[in-house]
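Weekly puzzle thread! Below is a chain. First person to post its structure in token form gets bragging rights.
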Amino acid sequence: MKGIGLVTLSTDPVGEDAFKAVMADSPLRVFTTRTGYDEENHEAGGFIPRPDWPVLLATLPPDDLVDVIVFLCTSATIALGNDELVHRLSSARPGLKYTSPGMAAVAMMKEFNIKRIALLTPYGPTLHDAFTPYLARYGIKVVADFSLAHSMNLVTDDDIGRVPVNRIQAELSQLLRDEQEVDAVFVSCAAFSVKQSDLVEMTGVLGCPVLASVHSTAWHVLDLLGEHGLRDKFASDLGLPRPANDQI
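Winning reply:
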């Protein structure tokens, strides 16, 4: 049986359970560990884990039980960049596959030819504003965006986990009202309490695929580990068509 080494932030009360819920019907084992981090540095746009990467990843089972490492933090990916994050993960645990919500969102958007998105985050200005240039490097344009940080006084991951789904849907509706020409919307943060069924419902209501951090990561893990049937059903449930090169 293939295995996933899941790394979540010590402050995130949602991401681990949300990821495991998505993976519950897959033939994959999920092993988890958590990391502290320098919160002031991260708010300023960086990411420094505590302990360091080798010590952190050594807390996961040995390589014969783990096939892919998942670092379940979107904003840390944005702060570090995909290449630097993979470098740090692979230096600590070489020879595996690696992903994160930022990496997975890019992979998913490229797979489904998503080039224009609306973006909703819970981050302060430094991290929120970093998404546009990050995604632009991969040919993805943020045409409408909003952060809930100020209007909802979101300070901690626990605050983010308490944001109601109906508030998320209302903000997405407003973003789409202001800018209709989008291929999808992306709800960024593994700490948002959003289930797969919520994304399916919002996709139907908004008439536009709604992607989110944990679920994009799950899709990418299924892709990396060759679980293509589950991967394609997952994407179809979210209103994403099969890629043209997969169609007969």
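Puzzle host: Confirmed. Bonus trivia for everyone else. Strands lie at 2-9, 28-37, 49-50, 68-71, 97-99, 116-121, 141-147, 184-187, 210-212.
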